[in-house]
Automatic annotation (TrEMBL):
Localization: Cell membrane
Chief place where the protein resides: membrane
Protein name as catalogued: Transporter, MFS-type
InterPro entries, per database record: MFS, MFS_dom, MFS_trans_sf
GO cellular component: plasma membrane
Domain of life: Bacteria
Length: 411
């Protein structure tokens, strides 16, 4: 367990940089579980006669968690300045644990939607805090790796959600996945409360007002880069989180069994985790923006493959694995590229911008997916996501160009 040592004066000693990064990653694991478990439970939600919901409503419910997440991101900056990022992160973990409980006891679709908004608010605030804390405790030459280690928690949480779904839902229904998430999240909350994190001096001693931090990012040397980062985040997350919400049902409707469909969601998140280690290492060596372009290409290839309607499990697994590597790693590398071009006091702000735009895309992904899937099935779903993936690829190229022409904002 991660705990802080207590000195002779009775004051908790701060966690080491490595311990901070591990704690942040564990927090993000539970964020990933609580995000992706909805997509895992979609097939049984649609089959639940007590809920009586259709694909469009399901897509809307899948999207509101990200609307809540955007709210969490927007309030996290002022609250972090007042409470400190560690305290804010702990409070936010408690909020998304509450959201999981509310879903588990929800009697109808409306309550599920409200509960998912609560979940999203907690996740948005916790994710920005965790990423910023982890990045501030990392050296510049390990930025891609540390951000990957931290955000790898999202697909790792998705792996757990898929595994729990495979073993729990056939016996205890879709609500069991949310109860499991609530219990595990409360355990992580206790661990977080036992630790003490001290921000680096260059961050704690910054006197920049929040608005000044925001305007500093649009310095002539970096504003083009920031715009491309924002656009890439939106388009990538439309595809990535849209697939997390709709892949299981899309594959089931394509002729795969429920177990096979859930296994493919496991492949999606598992490939994201494994692939991210390699892409992060490559990003630290040759530059995160360049590797992001390669990952965006993998996403496009995977979607084109699924558009052909593979019936063999092996072929579907290959295409889904490419999507997992591409979708998740692209976002990690976008964030790493952005933080490498700003001074330490501005990292939290640029991460907040990246995450805010990502959550816009994350909201649109499931909602667009629900509308498209209800109207045209799996083939049209993958085609629409492929369009967003191509736009993301173009903006990733823009990040490379913008990074070459610009510089680094120093305060």
């Amino acid at each position: 367990m991660i705990t802080s040592r207590t000195g002779a004066t009775g004051v908790k000693q701060p966690l080491s940089s490595k311990a901070v990064i591990v704690l942040c990653m564990v927090v993000v694991v539970m964020e990933g579980y609580n995000l992706i478990t909805f997509g895992v439970t979609v097939p049984l939600l649609l089959d639940d006669p007590g809920l009586a919901i259709d694909p469009a409503t399901t897509g809307l419910i899948g999207g509101v968690v990200y609307a809540g997440g955007l709210t969490g991101i927007l309030v996290s900056g002022p609250l972090a300045d007042r409470w400190g990022r560690h305290r804010l992160m702990s409070v936010a973990v408690g909020v998304f644990a509450l959201g999981s409980v509310l879903v588990a006891v929800a009697p109808n679709a409306a309550v599920i939607g409200i509960a998912r908004v609560v979940t999203g608010i907690g996740i948005g605030a916790a994710f920005t805090s965790a990423m910023t804390l982890a990045r501030n405790h990392a050296t510049t030459n390990r930025a891609s790796l540390v951000i990957t280690l931290t955000t790898a928690g999202v697909p790792i949480g998705g792996v757990f959600a898929s595994l729990f779904g495979i073993f729990l839902m056939p016996h205890w229904g879709w609500r069991s996945n949310y109860w499991a998430g609530a219990v595990l999240t409360l355990v992580i909350l206790i661990i977080s409360l036992l630790g003490h994190i001290r921000e680096p001096d260059e961050v704690r001693n910054s006197t920049l007002a929040p608005f000044r931090r925001l305007t500093a990012l649009f310095h002539p040397t970096t504003r083009v880069l920031v715009v491309f980062v924002a656009l890439a985040s939106v388009t990538n997350l439309v595809t990535w989180l849209g697939l997390n919400a709709w892949l299981a049902e899309a594959m089931r409707s394509s002729g795969f069994t429920l177990t096979q469909a859930l296994t493919l969601t496991f492949v999606l998140t598992g490939a994201a985790v494994i692939g991210s280690w390699f892409t992060a290492t490559a990003g630290d060596r040759v530059g995160p923006a360049r590797v992001a372009v390669v990952c965006a290409v993998l996403t496009v290839i995977g979607l084109v493959g699924l558009m052909t309607g593979p019936t063999a499990m092996a072929a579907a697994t290959l295409f889904v694995a490419l999507l997992g590597i591409g979708g998740h790693s692209t976002q990690n590398l976008i964030s790493a590229a952005a933080t490498n071009h700003v001074a330490a006091p501005l990292r939290g702000t640029v991460i907040a911008i990246t995450n805010a735009m990502a959550y816009v895309g994350s909201f649109l992904g499931p909602v667009v997916g629900g509308a498209v899937f209800g109207a045209g099935g799996a083939s049209r779903l993958f085609s629409v996501y492929a369009v967003f993936a191509v736009v993301c690829l173009a903006t990733c190229v823009g990040i490379v160009v913008g990074g070459r022409r610009g510089g680094t904002v120093k305060m």
